[in-house]
Amino acid sequence: MPKTYTVKQVAVALGFSTNTVYKYLDEGKIKATRLGSEGRFRIPESEVTRLLGERQAVTPPSPSEALSGVERAKEGSTEDNTLSLLNRVANPDLFDWFLALTAVFVGLTEFLYPLSYQLLSVDPYRSLVLITKILLILAGPTLIAVDIFIPAKKTAHHLLSRLPLAAGFAVLAFINTITNQYLNVAPLSILAIFSLISILWHKHPIFRFLTFLYLVSLTSAFALVYQPQPILFADLRYFISSTPGLFIVLASAATTIAFVICFYASRVSRPIFTFCLWAISFFFLLVSLSKLTDQSWTKAIVYLCIAAFCFLQPISEHIESLSHFTRRQVLIAFIWMLCIVALGVLAVYTIQSSYRRSILSTVNQNSLAAARLIDNFITDSVRTIGSLSQSPQVAPSNLTDFLKESYLANSTLRRLLIVSSATGEIIASYPPYPADLLPNLAGSPLADQPPTTLLSYLSPPPTQDSSPAIYISSSINADKLTGVLVGIIDTVKLEDQLDDLLSSSSSTYTLIDSRNRSLLPPDSSAPPSIPGQSYPRVGYSSAGVLSFLSSSPIKPYQLTILVDQPYAQSFRTASIVSFSVFLVTLLSGIGGLLGAVYFSSRKP
């Protein structure tokens, strides 16, 4: 049989006078059962729990309202129950659980995939974002602690417990606004607003939660107009961009109809209401999973929490009340859950740090291997050019045949040229190339090699007309021919070898000369400056993409190979794994706590 309390017990527990309790009973604000037409009221424990959570002010009972001796005699046997009630705790509102857990999970995203890593524009606010998310991780448990351990709360208690949540969500919404991340702004701003509204709005929890869902869905639809993205498995970006007005009308109508149906079902049919909320829960779960694929952790976390509490809302009445336990029991359970959350955060941080070090090590090894490959490739070409320039077969009468045989005998050169030292003109080349399309090397260092210099290395371009390439030159030591043998390294083959070397990873590379010019790939955009940087490290590539960076010098030729691996692509698996570990840790802690409660409640 459900446990009940008398008017006096409830008055003492709430700090009301008995007259006030009777007044609320007459007005229907307190639900109770009356024993006979003139019998005493019996107030169920579920109603007392609700009142303890909603009490805003406490007024001590006046002496004139004390029980008479007869009443004390009749109710003396229930004094222990009254003391037991006062020693117990309040059951937090389900929406407070939602706000608290969402705050913890949103704060956790700083360890999964920091916002400053996703957007270069957030980098100036990195410290503020970190402080705000740590605040959210601490504010979530604080809200639950106040709800549980201060049953009769004043407005100041609600204000102090919810203000940090509202401030944290508002700051994140502001930062996302100035960085044009409107799809993050939509749920964060509504969370901030409802954190403040919850200071005074405690009644009608179902209507409050449905209103929250409605506003989140509506503002997200408006955000899609400014920042179109695919919705689940449908790519509606063209439709949204071309007809934003029609999209807003359709989205507003759909969300409004869903809100009205859910609210009406909550009043007339519990099964239909449950079905509607579970359908909404499934929808938000799919949206959350879709956001995980592109590492949009803030949206994914918020939508996942919404999905979870949409599922719990219809069955919340069947969840066992905390008021069945003493303060000591709940305090132990609360400390246990704090330790579990801390352990989960530590596990996420450890996994992320370990994986980050592993990727940096891999990228560094890739850069070293790429540097060795380029060094060997260029060294082979240098040796080939040096040997050919000293060949006795070099003669003015057979230059083309000599270049053809030399070209076919090696695999590292794309073209061979012989340049006259006197005029700077190209007097022979292989493979054949129209003379008017060959670069004019007059006055360039290639055409002015002193006879005593066997080998020299020049990085491109030697003239403004020549395409980016790696040139190797050596003075020709032959009778009746004063010139320079020039070889152009086959960068296509070099790129193929580098691609094969890095095929097992998502790394890309940039070969830079001593003047910070990109040789591979030949790109007009300026590569990042290498001097003074510490490698390997996490930084932004020349394209402005956050990456794992590592560089290795090729000292004999004054070159540097820079290898970068995009952070988001590299860390997708690590982020999902670490978040899964956090969820498993949290669920294991909850499961252990429920198991302890179950076995401790069993009678021997």
From TrEMBL:
SUPFAM superfamilies found in the cross-reference section: Putative DNA-binding domain (SSF46955)
Helix-turn-helix domain: residues covered: 5-54
Transmembrane segments: 94-115, 127-150, 162-179, 185-202, 209-226, 246-265, 272-289, 331-351, 576-599
Chain residue ranges for the region called Disordered: 54-73
Record keywords, A-Z: Membrane, Transmembrane, Transmembrane helix
Pfam family, one: HTH_17
One GO MF term: DNA binding
Annotated protein name in UniProt: Helix-turn-helix domain-containing protein
Organism listed in the record: Candidatus Amesbacteria bacterium RIFCSPLOWO2_01_FULL_48_25
